[in-house]
Amino acid sequence: MLKVTCLGATQTVTGSNFLLRTDSGKKYLVDCGLFQGPKKIERRNWSDWDFDPAGIDALLLTHAHIDHSGRIPKLVKDGFRGRILTTHPTAELCRIMLLDSAHIQEMQAEWESKKRKRQGLAPVDPLYTQEDAEKVMEYIHPVQRDEMIELEPDLQVRFRNAGHILGSSIVELWTRDQDEEMKVIFSGDLGQEDQLIVQDPHQILNADHLFVESTYGDRNHRSFDQSKEELLQAIMYSARAGEKVLIPAFAVERTQEILYILGEFHRQGRLPDIPVFLDSPLAIKATEIFRQNPRDYDQDARALVSRGVDPFDLPDLTFTSSTQESMDLNARQGPAIIIAGNGMCTAGRIVHHLKHNLWRQGCSVVIVGFQVAGSTGRMLVDGAKKVKVLGENISVRAKVFTIGGFSAHADQSGLLTWIGHFRNHPKVYLVHGEERASTALAQAIRSRIGFEVHIPQWKESLLLKPRQEVEEVFAKETGEADFAAATYNSVIDVERLIKELKKKIQDPEWAKNLDEEDLDRLQSWYQDLQTMLGEKDA
Ligand SMILES: [Zn+2]
Ligand SMILES: [Zn+2]
Asked: Whose atoms come closest to the Cα of 167: which ligand?
């Protein structure tokens, strides 16, 4: 038996944190992220742990994003002495991200203390300091992807590629209940198929219990190619107007994807001749880590590297690390592309660029990532005419481009495809999603795949048992859903095979071996299918 308590990322996208208790009495955590967004949610970062940090044996970290890792310094400060298991790239990214997060915590506490002092109140301490963040590194034990690790005799774990950001993982866990084996999976954040730089999410076929993210459970992204064109349109719009293009971007993955795409535009001769600034010390450091980990790239990115192309470089690209260099950008006239953090426009250098440019006609703000409810970024997406930036009301005359296709998260159809690969009816728990998104995905899973779904509440505990018996009953009771599941699985199997075939045909080396007979067979299959589907319609 395994007891799982959901202590974060329930009916919200942030604060990922799951407490696992095994029969042996040992305790583990999956992720330990910061709650972000509305004050009501962020306050949870300050509340006491629902467990004793000193009693945790190991922390399994899916990836470096702060909503999955951002409370680890507090955990260590409060007594955690176990091992933190995660992949090498995640370990490297974590270091810079936690230090950055600690810096933000320190600044916020300082600002708050000044304000309180004026009111005659005592100062406040930060959630954690840079020193606390530095200490986390002592506990990190990087592991190889796809390697079986024994946590205790009846508990094994394996990190699989999640295709979300560099180093990101799905956590597979095997445990025993008496004599029966049970497999539990935590998806972490799942990437999109064919996402830039990283490899596609690993397809897993079996599980008893499946914790899956649902950030975009209620919608599908616009096409990636279309999104790239929209980015180019935004750049052209401001380049013509002689104004700036502001791209608020998460420092890890999104920033490198944008650089990658700009590089592509440049190689195609489509990028106008304007300077590009990466105005984020964190993103600059992250880009370095990306450059040092080509082993984690997908085929296309590797191909560039083998041709001697740096996927993250441009002829007119400047890294502005210092505050002075960043401030100089405010005074700079003429068009430019500025990529800066944070991704939701709630803090960081982007806020200063917004203050200086949002009111200017011809400027463009390109939103390329998820915007949590209540953030400045979300207000811009929702068409606010005025937003409060650094205490000032700024009117929005810039053109806001919301580009949905660059997401590092699978969309509804991506999630359904990934979940649909499971053969043995796992029970699905939807986490990492706002209520609306999780509910919509739950309905889609029930009706299209036929799996049982539950959306856990905050602090809800679940007793997980092997599903073999449950599965049989389930199949009997809901024969209809089971048939729908089989149909759905067949369709996605065919879809996957066709995709593979398409890739092969596009490869000239492979295609030159296609002879007439092969083509004839493909043709006749295609016609057969068309006829059958036509008859079904009629
Ligand atoms: Zn993430
Ligand atoms: Zn996340």
From this structure: 1
